[in-house]
Amino acid sequence: MTENQARIAAEVSTEWSAILGCAPVHPGQDFFESGGSSLDAARLASRLSALYGVAVPLRAIFESPSVIGLVAWLRANQVSAQGRFMLLSADAAAAAQDPLVVFPDEEGDPAELRAFVGGIRRPVLGVRSRGLLGVGTPLLSIQEMTEDWVRAFAVWSQSRTVHLAGVGVGCVFAAAAANALVAEGWAIPGVVLVDPVTLKPTSFDAAVASRIRSLARSLGLVADTEPDSFESLRDALASSGSVISDAVFDEMVVRLRVAAANTVAACTAAPFDGLPRVLMLSRNGTSNFDASPPGAAHHALGAEGNLLESLEAFLAEVEGDPSSSSRPAGREPAATP
């Protein structure tokens, strides 16, 4: 069992113990033979769903009723259409390359990262924000988010060496995740920040209201008083004759709440500091970033610039420089199986 798997096994054992009152003696022990009932299994599924931000169905407990089985289930379902990571590219010819994990803008949806796929010669994954799938609630602070990311990364990856990237608000998250993972013994050779932004602190309610007003304007619902709550948005849609089902509206609500939470959380992040080698890319031709990590390389692409070429060249460079990997002082990176 790798170090990552051992971490997840310990967390699953903790949830198991909270329900049955005693921890499993060994990772292959059967939950039901240990006294667990169907109701207990439902409670375990619920607790694991909340912990990892993915929907763990009751059948997963019946089909994999052991710690080692549940660790395997979580790993198999972490990178999927319903997982915390979306596989954006899996170049078979470059599967041995260190993967690149990308944080999207505040919307938190990896589907917007398709521009990163074409031509990147390594595995590329996008991070899906907690709460986007309707499982769990969005997180409102960087501290909560970094703990969540470390757990999610440990479930997904057998290796402990990855590159990170962020787009827009996702730059804040990539930088925070890099610091958190390095503190956990991961090697992060390089971080790429594309179009970083500077945010002004705001409350969750204010961020939600701003998102609702923006959506209303995009839908042509501007009136004397713009909607600034979900109730007023629903009323405005009904008054305009828009035919939007409850399911679609509920999904809109989830997405707005996640985007607002991500905006608020990004404002709680510390300034960029202590990162591994960083490349900051601007697609609009300017390199005047408001906040930059010490020693960051700036590259303004402009209209003729090629994002993928710049990104690939940087990653190849840091992979060829052993001193570029950021690691905690006095600790060696964990072995890659």
Short descriptors:
alpha/beta; Rossmann fold; 3 domains
Mean pLDDT: 84
SSE sequence, one letter per element? HHHHEEEHEHEHHHEEH
Low-confidence stretches: 327-337
Return the CATH architecture of the largest domain: 3-Layer(aba) Sandwich
CATH superfamily of the largest domain: Alpha/Beta hydrolase fold, catalytic domain
CATH topology of the largest domain: Rossmann fold
What characterizes the major β-sheet? 7 strands, mixed
Kindly give the count of domains. 3
As laid out across the biggest beta sheet, the strand order is 1-3-2-4-5-6-7
Q: How much beta, percentage-wise?
A: 5-15%
Rg over alpha carbons: 21 Å
Cα(first) to Cα(last) distance is 10 Å
Structural class: alpha/beta
Annotation field: number of helices: 10
Q: How many strands in all? A: 7
Shape: globular
Q: Just give the CATH class of the largest domain.
A: Alpha Beta
Helix content: 40-55%
Task: Describe the protein's architecture and organization.
The protein has ten helices and seven strands. It is an alpha/beta fold. The chain has a seven-stranded mixed β-sheet, sandwiched between helices. Helix 1 (3-20) crosses helix 5 (142-156). Residues 327-337 have low confidence and may be disordered.
Give me the secondary-structure topology.
Elements: H1 3-20, H2 38-52, H3 58-63, H4 67-78, E1 85-89, E2 100-103, E3 124-127, H5 142-156, E4 163-167, H6 170-183, E5 190-194, H7 204-218, H8 230-240, H9 246-266, E6 277-282, E7 297-300, H10 307-319
Helix pairs in contact: 1-2, 1-4, 1-5, 5-6, 7-9
